[in-house]
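User: Quick one: structure for sequence A, then sequence B.

Assistant: Sequence A:
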Amino acid sequence: MKTPPDSFDEFEAQLRAFQPATPSTQATQRVERVLARPHPWARMRAALQRAWTFEPGPPSWIWATAALALAAGLIAFVYVRQDDAPPVLAPAASSFGATPATAAVAPAAASWETVSSTSVWLASVDEGLVASENGDTVQRVREQFADMVEWRDSTSGLVVQLHYPREEVTSRSVGPF
């Protein structure tokens, strides 16, 4: 009786006797054509390798410097083109005096005009009964808003939108229990 390892020796000998079949000429030609074509990213890879290696020729840092200079020039051009001052924000007193709300004030230049102003109520939170400063019992309610003001410059057509949150706290007097 043979032991299992001996049977594997015979099987391995049979496998070694096998020879791979030669591919057809058509298959060989197709593989050669595919391998002869450059990879789609080969040119990009070569350019990146040249840019990050220091070889004789134009230094790679020239391109980075030129890009930064172009960006700085574009930013300077945009800021120089703005003739009027941007909108100014000033605090305005709340209607109830509890918390000052932030309100937008139109710019002083005569060419700016307010196009629209909206206020959207977001939430109302009842904070319950609290003692006021003078000792009375009051119910405090906190309301939250999202406000938007839009200005347009009549000379250049530039539109400026300002979005800001606003919160109002109201206290309502509660009678005796």
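Sequence B:
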Amino acid sequence: YAIPLSNGQMLHAPEGMDRNEALAHARSMGVEAEGLKDIHLANGQILHAPDSMDEAEAIAQAKALKPDMDFTTKAQAEHVAKQGMGPAAASGLHGALGQLATGAGEWTEDANILKKPSDWLKQKGAELSKKAAEEYAPLTKEEAAAQGPLGYAKKYFAEPLAQGAAGIVPLAGAYAVPVVGPALGTAALATQETGALAQEAQQEGREFTKAGALPTIAGATALNYLGIKHLGPLRKAFGEEFSAGERAAVKAAIDQGGFEAAQQVVGSKLGNIAKNVGISSGAFVSGDVGTRVLERIYADKPVADDDAFKEYGDILTQDLPLGIVAGAGRGYMAHGAKAAALDKSGAEMRAAAPRPM
């Protein structure tokens, strides 16, 4: 194979010989030239640069010679293509499906008749999780800073929101199944946690057993259920009428304290939104942080070292956008339901009031 040299010539190296070995041999024979490395550009062209020159320096020199040419590298273009809400959502969905498939494989592996489907589910789960990790590249702090306020909005709100919202789609679908939704959704939570534990154990070379992981799975399922129940507008999908509780609260206030007391229960739209944003965000963050604590205990990892606190901070950053949006939607709907109930009660009270003859 041919190795281009900085003196304009080509070094022909035998197949099987390492490139560096070939260049070293050439130098020992008196060839005073460097090898040229290929820098692949997004436009399909190839920039040749000396091995000793940094890629950024080579591109800077090339730009100085041809300022009107785009020297974006192929790697840079591929990296940028993995950023944004679309890749974030795809990653969230594929990650959740991967964990569900792995978990389903773990729970069916003990039945001989299901051994092949179990193996397929585990393999598919691993493929989906690998795809989720590779298809999305979050903005770095430097990239966000370079884009200004829009970059920070993407990094800390839009992209985490897309990833988190897409990640709950399979669970929302399970809870939405008529009649069996609550049971199926809770089973999906437990299955997903099983898959998460199994995948982490495999990545770290640890043994995973369902029996040993059962306390962690049960605790994580309970914690995650608390967050799931605060998904605001999606709450109807979880098998209960969203506004029923709000109407009951208004009715109880009227029965106990009259119309003025009920008005205080209804409150302002902004107050309802702020309250529910706090509740939903707290439920998501506490549920996921608590789950991660349980997972670290199961894996015999410290729960209060620098690595652990970094993970908790990442969870906070990931969960807050979804908590804000879900809480805002839930607060808006709650205020609407309570206001409608108050208006209806007021109309009924006026209709039932004695009228002068």
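The radius of gyration is 29 Å. The first strand starts at residue 2 and ends at 4.

User: Thanks, that's what I needed.
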